[in-house]
Design a protein that fits this description.
Blueprint (H helix, E strand, L loop, with lengths): L14 H9 L3 H27 L3 E2 L2 E2 L27 E2 L2 E2 L3 E3 L5 H7 L4 H9 L29 H15 L6 E6 L6 H12 L4 E7 L2 E2 L2 E2 L19 E6 L3 H17 L4 E6 L11 H5 L20 H8 L3 H12 L4 H24 L9 H5 L12 E2 L4 E6 L1 H15 L3 E5 L24 E3 L4 H13 L3 E5 L10 H8 L2 H5 L6 E6 L14 H5 L5 E3 L4 H13 L4 E6 L24 E4 L4 E5 L3 H16 L3 E5 L2 E3 L3 H11 L2 E8 L4 H12 L9 E5 L8 H7 L3 H12 L2
Helix pairs in contact: 1-7, 2-3, 2-4, 2-10, 2-11, 4-11, 5-6, 5-14, 5-15, 13-18, 14-15, 19-23
The structure holds thiamine diphosphate.
Length: 721
């Protein structure tokens, strides 16, 4: 392709263009396609057989495993035929080819891109040691060969792919991402967010819809009112095409044109493949769909009258069995003969049997490493076992919290050429809705990437960017909106290292907090939602210097970090700090920001300043002196520092603005009770806000949050216990 060629040269809708590609297929390629479909069906049969037979055992009991079938959809094997995939695209041990995110029905995509790695395909269901993921999930993938692992929430990987595609585009790598989804999955918001994001950014992507006539048990008409799934592309301003998904050469040629187009920079394409699921949704569902468990052969049996599959439709598609059609075609052409076809079937079966034997012999995996080591590339460790004292040294002429975060980003950009900010309204002219990055708009305009209002796309894209070698600093405009992206954060970002054993160096900035009369959707502290989500680190600095240094640490960190920055602190003139103090500043673990003997008060974020004020009042008015600990890190919690302080004081009061019920502090209180019971002179006490949404009116917010007098009362009660 030469520069300057019009994108119209990639005639995605052109039958002639596809015919030209089909005509160029070599005999070798054709046999490869045929063999690939045979292998797909042989593996599919074997997975069903393993499910039924219980041949895999755990402590002598059959382990059926969980698995999905792809009967009738084997032509998807052809998608990657003319793409940049396979061992030829491994350079110095690094995969440099195209990427795909196959779903449960895409065994063929996995096999074709992995060099027919049958053992891994079978082991996904068996759950034994070894690839794809040491038994941690039953979905298939192999990142080192361009295969993102499928996830149960159907559009997860589609959002990851937009980030990966964005990384390819920014690095000017001529690589393409292929997303796969079923007709049912097209109803998911994440899928739409991803397409819109890819269209807006003109990403090198193919969005493949495999319309197999049914989603679990829901027929097309109850899924969508669109005439064709390809029609949906119109709304996103991208090209689309509907093809016969059972014609493997048609599939191969359509993907080739779409990929060329995407590589050229003409943006994404939606390919709808019409096909039919000729098996149940999953192994257990065959009985319901087909009316009985199928005979496991290379043919598709006629339907019995008892299943929920549509009888006439099933029969029509049975006549269009992609393997049978292609076999007949190749025999007609003389590329294949009956004997050779028979031999190839036996070869596929033998290959599968070998793989099963290997997998049966494999040991069962165990969880031997520590929890943090299973979910993080590099668990956070706090070096010092001694309490770190911090003098805040606020200065009227210093830097405020908002400027500090901007400075943290600026220094991270200077250090890492691959760092970028992704979020809503982050780019020029705004520099985010708090104008935080305005000072960087000239120097670093291209590092601030505006996203459509699509929280799932933002989080998923960050995961993909990170996997693609970038250092994304994502932004939730307000942390409250992370609820829209729960799937991408909790099921994607947090689980990627555990499932894929891949580092995900991403930061998600989470502007949060009350004290500003901003109501139920701009004031929450959502950190406790993620405290119990393994795989996410959480930081919550309370001062400008901490914010700047901890943000830099977050960007340098190889794992996903949620960065909770308190909006009420952004422009608070009382907490400005002189950055000259930075060389002596320590951001290791929790810090002691006020010292005393009678009580330990523990908090984080803006409430650190509230409890510090309380500590001073307690000392002046009541002669009670308190340690005040600023946690700074919410995952992991620096328990060593907490315990050291409590061992000295024997009393502990935990205070935050989060609703008390289910807060992080309640969880810490439980640990303290369990570990330090013998040191305690009074019950561990937790103060938080009331168990209602954050109210708007200033009077209501005051009633909602713990007030200074309430904290003082609680402290005195503890002392008098
Ligand atoms: C977000 C989400 N909701 C529900 C499910 C449960 N589920 C798994 S597969 C499936 C049907 C999917 O249908 P479709 O997208 O058409 O793909 P097909 O199974 O037909 O290949 C459902 C409802 C899921 N995995 N993820």
């Amino acid at each position: 392709m030469t520069a300057g060629t019009s994108s119209d040269n990639f005639l995605i809708e052109s039958t002639e263009e596809r015919a030209r590609i089909k005509a160029s297929l070599t005999a070798q390629e054709k046999v490869k396609l045929y063999k690939g479909m045979l292998l797909t069906r042989a593996v599919d049969n074997a997975l069903k057989q393993l499910f039924l037979s219980g041949d895999i055992t755990y402590f002598s009991k059959p382990f059926q495993g969980k698995g999905f079938r792809s009967l009738g959809q084997e032509a998807i094997y052809g998608a990657s035929l003319r793409l940049k995939t396979g061992s030829g695209y491994i350079d110095n041990g690094v995969y440099v080819g195209d990427f795909a995110a196959p779903l449960i029905r895409d065994l063929g995509v996995f096999l074709s891109m992995s060099g027919d790695d049958v053992a891994t395909a079978i082991n996904a269901q068996a759950g034994k040691s070894g690839p794809p993921c040491e038994g941690r999930d039953f979905h298939l993938g192999d990142f080192s060969q361009g295969l993102l692992m499928a996830a149960a929430p159907l559009a997860i990987a589609t959002c990851t792919l937009i980030g990966l595609a964005l990384s390819f585009k920014r690095k000017q790598e001529s690589r393409v991402c292929m997303s796969f989804i079923g007709d049912g999955g097209t109803s998911l918001g994440e899928w739409h967010e991803a397409i819109n994001f890819a269209a807006v950014h003109q990403l090198p992507m193919i969005f493949c819809v495999e319309n197999n006539q049914i989603a679990l048990s829901t027929p097309l008409g109850q899924q969508s009112r669109a005439r064709l799934f390809a029609d949906k592309a119109l709304g996103y301003g991208i090209k689309a095409l509907t093809i016969n998904g059972n014609d493997i050469e048609e599939v191969a040629s359509a993907f080739k044109i779409a990929a060329d187009r995407a590589r050229f920079g003409s943006g994404p394409v939606l390919l709808e493949l019409e096909t039919m699921r000729m098996c149940g949704h999953a192994h257990h569902d065959d009985m319901l769909y087909l009316g009985k468990d199928p005979l496991l052969s290379f043919a598709i049996e006629p339907l019995k009258d008892k299943g929920y599959a549509h009888q006439e439709q099933f029969e029509k598609w049975r006549q269009l069995d992609p393997i049978k059609l292609y076999e007949d075609k190749l025999i007609d052409q003389g590329t294949l003969c009956q004997t050779k076809a028979h031999d190839l079937k036996e070869e596929a079966k033998a290959k599968v049997q070998d793989a099963i034997a290997t997998i049966k012999a494999r040991p069962w995996p165990r969880l031997m490493a520590k929890d943090a080591e299973l979910v993080f590339k590099q668990p956070l460790k706090f070096m010092s076992k001694q309490i770190r004292k911090t003098e805040f040294n606020f200065s009227q002429d210093g830097t405020n919290y908002l400027q500090a975060i901007c400075e943290g980003v600026r220094l991270s950009f200077a250090k890492h050429k691959n760092a970028l900010v992704l979020g809503e309204d982050v780019g020029p002219p705004y520099g985010n809705s708090f104008m935080m990055f305005k000072p960087l708009m000239n120097e670093y305009a291209d590092r601030f990437v505006n996203a459509p209002i699509s929280e799932n796309a933002i989080v998923g894209a960050c995961v993909g960017l990170a996997l693609g070698g970038m250092l994304p600093i994502g932004e939730m405009q307000f942390n409250d909106f992370i609820a829209c992206a729960m799937d991408q954060l909790a099921n994607n970002a947090a689980k990627t290292f555990f499932r894929l054993n891949r580092s995900v160096p991403m930061v998600m900035r989470m502007p949060y907090g009350g004290l500003r009369s901003a109501g139920p959707y701009h004031s929450q502290d959502t950190s406790s939602w993620f405290y119990r989500t393994p795989g996410l680190k959480i930081m919550a600095p309370s001062t400008p210097i901490d914010a700047m240094l901890m943000l830099r640490r977050a960007v340098d960190d190889p794992d996903p970090v949620l960065f909770y920055e308190h909006i009420a602190l952004y422009r608070d003139p009382k907490i400005k700090q002189d950055f000259k103090a930075i060389p002596h500043h320590n951001i290791d673990g929790a810090s002691l920001v006020h010292e005393g003997d009678h009580l330990s008060i523990i908090s984080y974020g803006a409430y650190v300043h509230v409890v510090r004020s309380v500590a001073e009042q307690l000392s002046l008015a009541h002669g009670i002196t308190a340690d005040v600990l600023d946690l700074r890190y919410l995952t992991p919690i620096d328990f060593d520092t907490i315990y050291e302080s409590i061992k000295k004081t024997g009393r502990v009061l935990l205070v935050s603005e989060d609703t008390r019920v289910g807060s992080i502090l309640q969880s810490i209180a439980c640990e303290i009770g369990q570990e330090l019971f013998s040191y305690l002179d009074a019950p561990v006490t937790v103060l938080g806000s009331r168990n209602i949404p954050v109210p708007y009116a200033p009077s209501l917010e005051r009633d909602f949050l713990p007030t200074e007098p309430e904290i003082i009362d609680a402290a005195i009660k503890l002392i008098n216990f």
